[in-house]
Structure formats: structure tokens, C-alpha cells
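Support case: HMH complex. Customer-provided input:
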Amino acid sequence: MPVAELLRRHPEIWRAATAHPFLTAVRDGSLPAGAFDTWLVQDARFVADLLRFQARLLARAPRPAQAVLAGGLVALVEELAWFEEQAATRGLDLTAPALPATAAYAELLDRLDTADVPVALTALWTIERTYLDAWTTALPGAPAYREFVEHWTVPGFAGYVAGLETAADAVGGGQDDVFAEVVAAEVAFWDMALEQA
Ligand code: HMH
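Agent response - structure generated as follows:
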């Protein structure tokens, strides 16, 4: 099944992950800076975990998927440098311990190392598509958060997500279970930031 079909098959969890109260609060400016900072530090950890997962996936990916995965790896390395700059500006400690949702998401990525490539590519597409659509719902973003909302909704990111869709569809992705599992991990990640507020 085409991976895009998954969004239509699971509308409720999809809405929970992409129209989350965290994002509404980023849009209207009601999100406390502390909650945002907590989230930012945890997301930097997640990106580091994702980079390692994606590197392992690239190593076993079929030839046609290699270019999009390699391009994504470079983008993730740049993203980590960007997180480091943001953390320095905001006075955040990126070595803070992982909160439970971050640790659970890292475990999910580790488990995906032994999943078939179509399942792992479906997971990666879901990770990035959820993130893109989530930040899109936060547009244009309150002034305090606008730079972040714009950063994660640039056309280049949307193009990357489209490339992952093509790669996942080419190998027969579209598994419901992994989609639901990743979307639940995304919801838990947004929840975590609000619980810490
Ligand atoms: C929680 N999901 C989360 N963080 C991210 N940075 C992405 C997806 C996209 O890389």
C-alpha cells in the first residue's frame, strides 16, 4: 500500500500527532519558554539517535534509496550543529539526560534495525512526515517561536519527505503497525514537553 494511504487509514492518531496542543501553543504563543527549551534539548537527542539509525539503515538499503538516505544524513548532521547553536544562544545544556519518551523512541529505533527494509523505510518516512505536518499546523508561529517553525517547514524539508515517500513505496512499504507505533512515539514526545511545563 502506498505510504500516503496510511494517513487516511489512521486519521485519529494522525490528527493527535500533528494537531497536538504543544503545536497550538507554539502557534498562539502560550507555550512557556521552559517547555519549549525542554523539548528542544530532547529533540537534539532524538536527532542524534535518528542519525545513527539512518546510518545503519543506509548500510542495508537498496541502491535506489541510497541517495535520499545519504542526503538526509548530511541534513541531520547540519541539524545537530544548528541545535548546538540554538542551545548556546538559549543557555541550554544538551547533555541533560534523556526523558522517558526520548529513551522509548530510541529503543523503537534500535528495534527497527532488525525490521525488514520496507518497514524501516516506512518508519523513517512516518517520522519525517509527521514532523513536517506537525510544524506546518504551527505556522506562522508566535514571534518567539517563528524562527523554529519556519526552519522545520522549508520547501527543502518537504522535498526530502517526498523523496522518502518514493523510496518507501518503491520497496513495498506501507505497513500499518509500524506507522501506528511511530505516530504514538511522536505524540508521546510532544506530551513530554507539556508535562514538563
Ligand atoms: C520527535 N520527530 C521528532 N523530532 C524530529 N526532529 C523529527 C521527528 C524529524 O527529524
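The first helix runs from residue 5 to 9.

Case will auto-close in a few days if no follow-up is received.
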